[in-house]
Every structure is written in C-alpha cells, then in structure tokens.
Amino acid sequence: MNDGVKTVGRFAPTPSGKMHLGNIFCAMIAYLSAKKDGGEFLLRIEDLDAARCPKDGAENIIRDLKKLGFEFDGEIVRQSSRTDIYAEYENRLQKLGLTYPCFCSRAELHAAEAPHLSDGMYVYDGRCLRLTESQRRERSKTKTPCVRVKTPDKTVTVQDIVKGAYSQNIAKECGDFVIRRSDGVYAYRLAVAVDDALSGVNTVVRGEDLLSSAPAHIWLCETLGLEFPRFAHIPLVTGKNGRRLSKRDGDGDTLEKILEHKSAEEIIGRLAFSSGLIDKYESISLRELIDVFDFDKIKKSNITVEF
Ligand code: GLU
What we know:
By secondary structure, this protein is α/β, with parallel strands linked by helices.
C-alpha cells in the first residue's frame, strides 16, 4: 500500500466444489498485490456451511494452490471453527438493537455463501421486523427463525482500486440481510467482515460479481468498530462463449484436467497473458510475476483464457 502500510491480502475459497480458473486468477492477483510490497498473503477456507463442503474439498484446494506455487503466511483459517467468534459479533449487533428474528425461509438457504450476482439476490422487504413480540412468540412455536440485521437508509461508497467509486444505499439496495441461519450456521456477510478485520486483512481482491457486497461489508465493520479493508474487484474469467465460470457448471473438472497436463508456469503464464499482466505469452512462475504486477495492467473486461 502506498501509505507505508504493508498489504495483507487473502484468498478465501468456499470448498463446496473444485476450484476453476477464475478462482486461481483471483488467488493470483491477491497474492501478487500482497507480495509486490513485501506484504502477507493469507488463506481462509470459507467452510461455514460444513454440510455442503465435501470432506476433502479444502485439502484439494490447498494441494492445487501449492502445486501452482502459492505460499501462505500465518495459519490457515477455517470458518467452521470460528462459530464462537461470530456469536460474539452477533451479540454486539443485538446489543445495538440491530438484529431481529425472521421467520421467512426464502434465500435463507444460501445465506452462508457469498451472494454472487448470478445467484439472483433480492432485497428483503423487512416484514418480520414489523412483527409484535407476541407474534414472534407465536411463530417461534412452530419455526426456528434466522437472524437478520437492520440496515440503515444510508449510502456507503467503496473506492474500489479497479472499479473506482461504487455507492449503494444499504437499506434500499442491500436490505436487511441474514447474519445467522435458522440452523445456526453463520452467514457469509457477517463472517467475511469479522474475519478480514480480525486477521488484519487490509486489501480484499475478488471477482467483480462481489462488488455489490462491499458497501454492506464496510457498514458492518463501521457498526462493529472494526477496521475495513480496501477492495479490488477484478474481472471474471469466462469461457469461450462468454459464460462466467462456475463450480456448478463443471469448470472445476476442466481445471483439474489442466492441472494434470500443464505445468504451474504454463497455467500462471496463460492467466498473466490473458489478463494483461504480460504482453506476450510465456511460461512464468508466480514469484517471477511479482515485480511485473500492477493493478493498472489488468484488463477491465472479462477474461478468456485459452490453452
Ligand atoms: N468464499 C467466497 C467465494 O468463494 C469468496 C468471498 C470473498 O472473497 O470475499 O465466492
């Protein structure tokens, strides 16, 4: 970072399936931006919803990242072991009078996952906020509620390193979001803000489909008295037909085959060339790319990687 503070970056995969090239690209930019100024690169496994993560999911991710030349600083953080910490921050929000039980079930299912644009996120209309105490008691007899946080009618602006200024009215465009599901699983939005702050992450690099999550992240940190990071939302990697890569569409299997047949330097070289970091394709290691790295070199539009 240019104010003399070293970058602490991170890669935060959800081990619900195999990684695809877009995940590797994200890890690569997070790693390079941290190492460029001698900073740290952390790995956090976002296995909040343990039931949806295959047993060897995290280990496979770690193995593949190591094969590609990634090295991590500090301990690997696993969200599944941090429930008590999230509970403490939920309590703080409760003490501030900002939480309420919600008995609606729609969208709760995916609350533990990052709300990617393609997931069809919607703004909750706040209907359970208006329930009276006796209505709450009555509903609780038949249903365990999830917990939502009450969002303010306030505009928060992110100064994104890649995308520039992005503003959002938290109440109108994000809405009261779930912080704990009815099955007790803490939700992505709470966990990500708490974890980044507690592990000293000051630079979050991730796909641009999560840009719309950043204002709520900042608001939550401000509300909880936590430091918030700067953000760099980078272009997505798409297939030849323009389709965004996704674990659900088998793009993890494609990467698995690539990892079997290509060297780490070939894969990193392809990503570096396709994204604009180097002008000519060459096989290159992550370490060699550190000096070359500059956010300004990254293409602004989606990236297609050809092998
Ligand atoms: N675990 C998230 C995902 O796989 C990434 C969230 C983040 O980088 O903030 O989509």
